[in-house]
From TrEMBL, chain A:
Keyword Transmembrane helix belongs to the record: yes
Membrane topology category: Multi-pass membrane protein
Example of a GO MF term: antiporter activity
InterPro entries with a match to the protein in the record: CPA3_Na-H_Antiporter_A, MrpA_C/MbhD, MrpA_C/MbhE, ND/Mrp_TM, Nuo/plastoQ_OxRdtase_6_NuoJ, Proton_antipo_N
Keyword vocabulary terms for this entry: Antiport, Cell membrane, Ion transport, Membrane, Transmembrane, Transmembrane helix, Transport
Subcellular location: Cell membrane; Membrane
Species: Rhizobium subbaraonis
Domain MrpA C-terminal/MbhE: 689-773
Segments traversing the membrane: 76-101, 113-130, 136-155, 167-188, 208-225, 246-266, 278-296, 303-322, 328-352, 373-392, 412-434, 454-474, 503-524, 571-592, 604-624, 631-650, 656-678
Name of this protein: Multisubunit sodium/proton antiporter MrpA subunit
Domain NADH-Ubiquinone oxidoreductase (complex I) chain 5 N-terminal, first and last residues per copy: 69-116
Gene3D superfamilies per UniProt: NADH-ubiquinone/plastoquinone oxidoreductase chain 6, subunit NuoJ (1.20.120.1200)
Transferase found in the keyword field: no
One of the GO biological process terms: monoatomic ion transport
UniProtKB/TrEMBL annotation, chain B:
Record-given protein name: Multisubunit sodium/proton antiporter MrpB subunit
UniProt keyword list: Cell membrane, Membrane, Transmembrane, Transmembrane helix
Family (UniProt): Belongs to the CPA3 antiporters (TC 2.A.63) subunit B family.
Location of the protein in the cell: Cell membrane
Organism: Rhizobium subbaraonis
Any Pfam family matching the protein: MnhB
GO CC annotations on file: plasma membrane
TM region positions: 12-29, 35-55, 67-98, 110-133
């Protein structure tokens, strides 16, 4: 790729984030009309990537990127093949429509700007996710989609249900993301590559690796949670708490497909093995049936659609892992078809909700005359979802049945699942497209009338695309589905299926599906009751399991915190000092590395001995002091004596600092004591004094022995020589200590002053908690000492 | 602590100590001293002033909240590092210039800026702790 194109692609990946920054301001200036300029961002991205269509259609792969951290071989690089490009176009194209749609849908909402910002941020994350070449970027964008999805689901944050759904989605998909990270790390370890484009040629190595199963489980953990596969499907219907544009965009067309994307991307690497071809179809097929049955049970338009989305994702996973000749093509076709019709139907559901005030299917009817355009869009989308010719959904379904008609027992089992699932989805599609619009008029909370153009434009356009793609299937196959299927299969594929029905087993199965679907549609009310009863009988579901898990986690954390943080200062201090003593003494005892007894310095000068005596006198003063103030002062004397020793033995900087620290310690300790309102005398009983004394002696002994041992070891002067040699030469300073602090190890110092600052802030806020004055002021001394230690370097 | 002598002398002592702290800070690169020590001396000066005159005069004399001073110091230290990056050398690499002021060559460096940041963080953090503790004095 020439550098100009590369720069443009990079800009395209940055554009959504730029839009997210601009969105709040634009919305403040223009109100809901900000949707128009903001939709230009995704539109520009769409146009840019559409230029790549011919190139990708020829089977080429576009890569590019920039080194980010060359030292660790981390790059911001992308890999665009048929798979990525299809996703890029879907994300940016549907994204543009969604931005327009939400302009009208959330008109007048006080936080519309924030909404635009979130949705554009999500778009950026999603675009990055499907185009990332390096593992790190893939993971970062993967988690970024989880986070932006959290923000969008919880957009209506005043409602508890929203908050719960947002948290649930974050925990499930974010947790899955961590599994994915682990999986990618294992792949890296096995193959030594960190880029998908390179990984694609490492398939045999990965599959033969003893870690294959571990990789598979970890990657599937990421993909199944993101793509809402059973038993992790529960978060997706709950995510319907989000405003409808979010449901249409994230939870049908794009984000939930990220897991499917990952499976498709890794199919050439991980696929073709028995575990892959067992686990994927099994979970996918189960998800298909569970989703379809649960969707029948719902009366809320959005929830019905949400469960069919779960079912469709199941179908996609099943096809991706099925491994037969046409499976890749079927997955490719269904992926595109689903994005178009499901996005349209979600927007229709939102439109109905917006104009009538309800989306309960039993309270809607006869809207067709009032909302003809909405009705038309819904019908077009439903025809595609139901799989009727010449819509694109029909092509997809034909190919699905071709892929599953292998004749073996395995094929037949999955074909049965596919027929039942498709028939149920057929029923739901037409329930949504017909029930609210036909029949007698039912009174709704708001008088229905056609929504503004921006609201019906999106669903209409997507639904028409579903029809057009079916009609001009040859061109669509050449540009989109064939490269897409080739990328999934890992080898060139040519998709040929057209909207012309031709007699075959697949057509027969389609007919069976339609007949079954019509039957389910007619018996929908009864089927709903039956499904309802089934779920009631089972009683427990993963959704409730999630609540139990979270409640258990909170209870466990609470208990653990109570155990570790009982709130008693004596306990904390005792534990801290006991650990210090153990850390000092145990290694010495364990390795038998006790220091030799020091030799009495025969040449000790009188003033040196005097200073030592002063230090001992200070300690003696602390022990015998009759009140606390005296004890603090005596401690100060001891500290000053030590500082004098530093001065005598050639560490003026250290001694200087020690003097100041001791002075300030005395002042601050005194202040703390006065605030604590303690009795002037120490009133501990002997039974407590003795263990405390033992602990104090153990700590003191530990430090002394440790220091003796250190000074008795051989001293390696390499650093001293280095600093003495270079301090003046390259850092222009004669004071080696200070040059080390501010220049050689400046980053350390930066960290330390940040700690000093943070500690200060922490102490300040503790002091300001009036109610627990005692606790706060006492803790204040702990960090104070720590900062003093820092400054003594 | 409430003797007239102490109360009268404290402002002069504080002024002298502050001056001395700046001196220690600036000479730190070649002689014993530096930002940490200078900051501690200045903090001690503030403590003396506070003990002698009460906290309100200290706050007024400081003008800014001591924590803001500390934050500014941290910012200064970061800026000192970033200047190096602008000059296309690794973060926190010392850069020196030698402008001539009134015929005297004055060495200036990002290292000095960094040390000034350290000084301000130490003064700000410790003074704000001391002042907060003194607030409800006895």
């Amino acid at each position: 790729m020439q550098s100009g194109m590369m720069a443009m692609t990079f800009v395209a990946f940055c554009l959504p984030f730029a839009g997210a920054l601009a969105a709040p301001l634009l919305t403040r200036l223009l109100g809901s009309r900000a949707a128009l300029p903001l939709s230009l961002f995704p539109l520009a991205i769409f146009v840019h990537f559409a230029q790549l269509l011919p190139e990708i259609g020829r089977g080429e792969i576009v890569t590019g990127g920039y080194m980010w951290v060359p030292h660790y071989n981390v790059s911001f690089s992308w890999l665009i093949d048929g798979l990525s490009l299809t996703f890029l176009l879907l994300i940016s194209g549907i994204g543009a429509l969604i931005v327009l749609y939400s302009g009208a849908y959330l008109k007048g909402h006080p936080h519309q700007g924030r909404f635009f910002s979130f949705i554009l941020m999500f778009m950026g994350a999603m675009l990055g996710l499907v185009a990332s070449d390096s593992f790190l970027m893939l993971f970062v964008f993967w988690e970024l989609t989880s986070i932006t999805s959290f923000l969008l689901i919880g957009f209506d944050h005043a409602r508890e249900a929203s908050r719960r759904a947002a948290l649930q989605a974050l925990v499930v998909t974010g947790g899955g993301g961590l599994m994915l990270l682990a999986g990618l790390l294992v792949i890296w370890d096995v193959t030594g590559v960190t880029q998908l484009s390179l990984l694609l040629s490492f398939g045999p190595e990965v599959r033969a690796s003893p870690f294959y199963v571990a990789i598979l489980v970890l990657v599937l953990g990421g993909a199944f949670t993101k793509s809402a596969q059973f038993p992790f499907h529960f978060w997706l219907p709950n995510a319907m708490e989000a405003p409808t544009p979010v449901s249409a965009y994230l939870h049908s067309a794009t984000m939930v497909k990220a897991g499917v994307y990952l499976l498709m991307r890794l199919n050439p690497v991980l696929g073709g093995t028995t575990p892959w071809e067992t686990i994927l179809p099994a979970f996918g097929g189960l998800t298909l049936l569970v989703g379809a049955v649960l969707s029948i049970r719902q009366t809320d338009l959005k929830l019905m659609l949400a469960y069919t989305t779960v079912a469709s994702l199941g179908l996609l996973v099943m096809l991706t892992g099925f491994g037969s000749e046409h499976a890749a093509a079927a997955a490719a076709l269904y992926l595109v078809a689903h994005s178009l019709f499901k996005g349209a139907l979600f927007m229709v559901a939102g439109l109905v909700d917006h104009e009538t005030g309800t989306r309960d299917i039993t309270r809607l009817g006869g809207l067709g005359r009032a909302m003809p355009l909405t009705f038309a869009a819904a019908l077009l989308a439903a025809l595609s979802m139901g799989g009727l010719p010449p819509f694109f959904g029909f092509l997809a379904k034909e190919e699905v049945y071709v892929a599953l008609s292998g004749g073996s027992l395995r094929s037949m089992a999955f074909m049965l699942a596919a027929v039942i699932g498709n028939a149920l989805m057929f029923a739901v599609a037409f329930a949504i497209a017909l029930k609210p619009f036909l029949g007698p008029r039912v009174a709704t909370p708001k008088a229905p009338h056609e929504g503004p153009a921006l609201l019906w434009l999106g669903p209409m356009l997507l639904a028409v695309c579903g029809l057009a793609a079916g009609l001009i299937s040859a061109e669509v196959h050449a540009l989109v589905t064939s490269p897409l299927a080739s990328a999934i299969a890992g080898q060139p594929q040519v998709v040929t299926v057209s909207a012309m029905p031709h007699v075959s087993l697949a057509l027969l199965l389609s007919a069976v599906t339609i007949v079954l679907g019509v039957a389910f549609f007619l018996l929908l009310d009864r089927a709903r009751l039956a499904a309802d009863r089934l779920v009631e009988d089972i009683g427990w579901g993963p959704d409730r399991g999630f609540d139990q898990f979270m409640a258990g986690l909170v209870r466990f954390s609470h208990r653990l915190t109570r155990l570790l943080q009982p709130g008693r200062m004596e306990v904390y201090l005792t534990i801290t000092f006991a650990v210090v003593a153990a850390a000092l003494l145990l290694p010495l005892a364990w390795y038998g590395e006790w220091p030799r007894l020091p030799i009495w310095p025969a040449d000790a000068q009188f003033h040196e001995l005097a200073v030592m005596a002063l230090a001992i006198a200070g300690v003696f003063g602390v022990l015998t002091a009759t009140n606390r103030l005296n004890a603090i002062l005596a401690l100060g004397i001891q500290g000053f004596a030590v500082a004098l020793l530093f001065l005598l033995f050639g560490a003026p900087d250290l001694s200087f600092t020690q003097f100041m620290v001791e002075t300030l310690s005395v002042v601050i300790l005194t202040l703390v004591m006065t605030r604590l309102h303690l009795q002037p005398r120490d009133a501990r009983p002997l039974s407590q004094k003795l263990p405390d004394a033992a602990l104090a002696i153990a700590c003191g002994l530990g430090f002394s022995l440790y220091l003796l041992k250190v000074t008795q070891g051989r001293f390696d002067p390499v650093l001293t020589e280095f600093f003495n040699l270079y301090s003046k030469a390259i850092a222009h300073g004669a004071n080696v200590v200070n040059v080390i602090i501010v220049d050689f190890r400046g980053t350390d110092t930066l960290g330390e002053i940040a700690v000093v600052m943070t500690t200060g802030l922490a102490i300040l806020s503790l002091i300001r908690i009036r109610k627990s004055v005692a606790g706060s002021a006492a803790t204040a001394t702990g960090p104070k000492k720590a900062t003093a230690g820092d400054t003594q370097r | 602590m409430n003797t007239v002598i102490f109360r009268t002398l404290a402002p002069f002592l504080t002024a002298l100590m502050l001056l001395f702290s700046v001196f220690v800070l600036l000479r730190g690169h070649n002689e014993p001293g530096g930002g940490f020590i200078g900051g501690l001396i200045a903090a001690a000066a503030m403590a003396i002033y506070g003990v002698a005159r009460g906290i309100q005069p200290v706050r007024e004399a400081l003008w800014f909240h001591p924590m803001a001073i500390a934050a500014f110091g941290l910012l200064l230290a970061c800026v000192a590092g970033l200047v190096s990056m602008l000059a296309a050398v690794p973060f926190l690499t010392g850069l020196w210039i030698y402008p001539s002021l009134f015929g005297v060559e004055v060495p200036l460096s990002t290292v000095m800026l960094f040390d000034l940041g350290v000084y301000l963080v130490v003064v700000g953090a410790i003074t704000s702790i001391a002042l907060a503790l003194e607030r409800e004095d006895i």
